Amino acid sequence: MRVTTTTQAPVDTAADTVAIGVFEGEDVAHDLDGAPLQALLDSGEARRTLKHLALTHAAGRRWLVVGLGARDDFDAERARAAAATVVGRLGELGTRTLCWELPHRLDEAQVGGFVEGTLLAAHRFDRYRAAPPEDETPARVEELIVSDHHDVSAPVERAVLVAEAQNRARDLAATPPNDLTPQTLAERARELAAEHAALSVAVLGRDGIAAAGMGAFAAVTQGSDAEPALITLRHEPADGDGYDLGLVGKAVTFDSGGLSIKPAASMATMKFDMAGGAAVLEAVGAIAALGLPVRVVAVVGATENMPSGRAMRPGDVVRARTGTTIEIVNTDAEGRLVLADCLAHARELGARRLVDLATLTGAILSALGHHRAGLFADDDAWAAAVERAAAATGELVWRMPLDPEYGELIESPIADLVNAGERGLAGSITAAEFLRRFTGDVPWAHVDIAGTAWDLGRPYAAKGASGWGVRLLVDLARAVAGE
Fold first, then answer.
1. CA R_g for the chain
2. Spans of all domains in the chain
3. Residues paired with residue 398 on neighbouring β-strands, in sequence order
4. CA distance 333 to 319
5. Which segment of 22-31, 42-51, 441-450 scores lowest on mean pLDDT?
6. Long-range contacts, 191-196 (Cβ 8 Å, 24+)
7. Same fold, 2-148 and 167-480
8. What is the DSSP secondary structure assignment for residue 20, as one 8-state letter?
9. Does 3.60.140.10 match the CATH number of domain 167-480?
10. Helix (H, G, I), strand (E, B) or coil at 269
11. CA distances (Å), origin 78, targets 285, 369, 421, 456, 458
């Protein structure tokens, strides 16, 4: 979708549909000859309640009066919801060009929210569906015009870049596993590096992973014929030692559970077990596109987890990059094995702060549902920074405990650790506790997105892949960069 900004009144643009938001206790900023918008409010046909819509026609176009609720309660997330509600109506109206006339006195985040909500809600993943007959093809919005009295081009451009990156992450997570392999993700990283001068990429395959001493990651890869990929994407806008930010993503492109095989009903959507890696890749692409002055190293561990005669077995003991030995008690607890070596790798490369994103445990879905992701951290200041980014972007988190007693649940009688605690006991916490053993003294945060990466339930991302985490990571990078 093409997005432009203007200080013109909507009636002077080429839009065929205009959306005008109205707060409680306020009236339409200006009325139109032949389009009594205020009369719609006065009659009760239009309401100021958040997401309420009313339609009228005038001056050869459609006008939607959109309720925004109380101004004091309005934030970027409510802007996304209002925009998504409008997009839901546009298909039946045949809209091609939409103009949002923004209310006065919005901040940059709220302006961006209208743009993000529009682009995210308009996104469709239909590459595998047959094209309908031409006379049955639903109308798609091709252009968004943002109208304001002031120049809002900067926040609009930023919102476009981030929303498009999120939609690309959604496409990656939605792509079937026969097409989206570990090497496909590696190729996407190469594309990003080719697009931005500040990005470079290195990829290791099966032999390279083993040669690097990443025995935990290698153990997961060995059951699959698909070539794994350790993807290292660096954003280096300036010379320097080390990296301000290390981003690590789990990218299991299909998770059967291995020999500890999942129930059949749990496997159909396991293509999205690489959503954390997709979010990391596309967030770094957005960071580069925005030109943020922050040095970032991103490490994505991409593999399938499959059962075969070569697959790791319950009872095996493997040695991670750090030298830590791990007893495998459940081959479906594979994501933490991948992340263990990826976290160690990012730390060795000089990351001064670490964040990992992973669809790690079903237990976090039981705890928090689809509304929030689980946040685990070993540094209060760094946890607070992640929480601020979460609140600013609407990608909400809830901090979970990491008490020393939980470490006892991953002790092994024959190795340094087991890869899974007792079933049914603090599954998300013990997984995070496992990861903490590989981060050393670097401030680290783990975000478990198993409940938010799919079927998020938000108006702009209700079903399927959500691209959750792209906005959060970009905002976090902006904060680290001091913007």
1. 24
2. 2-148, 167-480
3. 374
4. 16
5. 22-31
6. 192/233, 192/281, 192/284, 192/285, 192/288, 193/233, 195/285, 195/288, 195/289, 196/235, 196/285, 196/288, 196/289
7. no
8. E
9. no
10. coil
11. 26, 20, 40, 16, 11
* Secondary structure class of 229 (helix, strand, coil): strand
Backbone φ and ψ of 194, nearest 5°: -70, -25
**Could you tell me the pLDDT band of residue 137, with boundaries at 50, 70 and 90?**
low
User: Treating both helix axes as pointing N-terminal to C-terminal, what angle do 380-393 and 470-480 enclose, rounded to 10 degrees?
Assistant: 120
Query: Kind of pairing, strands 354-358 and 245-255?
Result: parallel
Residue 270 CB contacts under 8 Å (≥ 6 apart), including other chains: 177, 252, 254, 255, 256, 262
**444-448 and 373-377 beta bridge pairing:** antiparallel
Fold for 2-148, please state it. Answer: Leucine Aminopeptidase, subunit E; domain 1 (3.40.220)
The reply to whether 262 belongs to the active site is yes
Task: Verify whether residue 51 is a known catalytic residue.
Answer: no
Order of all β-strands in the sheet with 444-448: 199-204, 229-235, 296-305, 245-255, 354-358, 444-448, 373-377, 397-399
Q: Which two tokens stand for residue 279?
A: 């979010």
pLDDT above 80: residue 33: no
Determine which one of 51, 234, 336, 353 is catalytic.
336
> Order of strands, edge to edge, in the sheet holding 325-327?
317-319, 325-327, 417-418
Give per-residue pLDDT as tens, 390-416.
999 999 999 999 999 999 999 999 999
Of 327, 325, 326, 331, the residue nearest 313 (C-alpha)? 331
Look at residues 360, 368, 346 and name the one whose alpha carbon lies nearest to residue 444.
346
Cα torsion 172, 351, 322, 325: sign: negative
pLDDT at residue 77 above 70? yes
Helices (H), strands (E): how many in the chain? 14, 17
Task: For residue 185, report the phi and psi dihedrals to the nearest 5 degrees.
Answer: -65, -40
Instruction: Quote the CA–CA distance of 125 and 104 in Å, as a whole number.
Output: 34
CA distances from 362 to 185, 207, 249, 390, 429 (A): 24, 31, 17, 21, 12
**Which of 71, 96, 190, 262 does the annotation list as catalytic?**
262
pLDDT of residue 135: 63
* Residues constituting the chain: 483
